[in-house]
């Protein structure tokens, strides 16, 4: 992707090992995977930085690590969206030279680059120029200037051909249409090994078989029907859980802030409700304490996923789209790894207030709660939390202390009766909470999977994005620039 979406708080080597475990499965042993990781890092010039965490890498190093992660399973075709964005001139040339080296190893690398320099433009094997949804040129980079001459657009010798063609197609719609017609919207390709310029004759255009039919009938169909992962659900779950625990452990500042926050809040709540837990004269105070605890956890953590999920979902989309792991394994690992610090919530702030009202409904008239209200109360996960805490406090408790002439609630069972929890069991509250976790996690993973499948289909089948007649007959993988 255009942005370098790297997992934070992981070293280069750790990121590569996790990618190797997820993408290579059990077909290779640990020694073979280590050799693959070392070879890739050596090739991309990252071996000396193998112990550097991703957030401490430079822009060029981050870009190379993004490429390295996808090279683990040696893909035949690599798409790169604006790989030179945000890099200085030296880093840009180093990256493109590296991509050219990778293309010479049998891979096809396709890049979108809007403003390549003249030296950078000359490094591409094939250029594919797009304007207003049409292909205006497809062929070798050195043949772009002769092609422009054919349509009456003379590129000055001191001008960058890439800048000149972009300015031409952007400012002159007629020239753009004429160029598209001359190359038959990209179906005709100019190749250096087939082009001759003798006696002032115009270069002869040669036609290649369109890749569209091949891509749709073979590659896309196979990929859409066989969406399997290299590893099993359990393997993905363990690898992702380990990764998330490492990231959480290294986020020491957040952990210390959470610890101090919990301790301070516990001291404040404890001082407010001090010495009232066993007083039969004020039994409702205990419910106020339980509600205060629920509200603390709810409002403290409810904004964490709201703020962080947009960034996390971008990395999730990249890794899932490239078939690293399934969404069910990701959300299972996320749920399990967030349990120790309770880092997250399952609903947004908009649903909090009504759920809190349903949680507290029936205080004082528990046996007379309406049937319709019981149904609504069962939709509030906070009710299950409050019931679990209350049952743990009162269901098997002996008589409470009474320092007055008469205490109505000396018997704890009367308290549970009047708040509508007399017939509830502790384990059913746990089952209810687990049910809410499944209900809220599983549909989200299904929706994400549906969205990514649609994205996959559009990427494979979108005729406006790819009509590269060159891929099927490229020989060794070329470096293709799309402008």
From TrEMBL:
Main location: membrane
InterPro entries on file: ABC2_TM (IPR013525), ABC_transporter-like_ATP-bd (IPR003439), ABCG_transporters (IPR050352), P-loop_NTPase (IPR027417)
Pfam families: ABC2_membrane (PF01061), ABC_tran (PF00005)
Limits of the ABC transporter domain: 2-85
GO cellular component, one term: plasma membrane
Subcellular locations according to the entry: Membrane
UniProt protein name: ATP-binding cassette sub-family G member 4
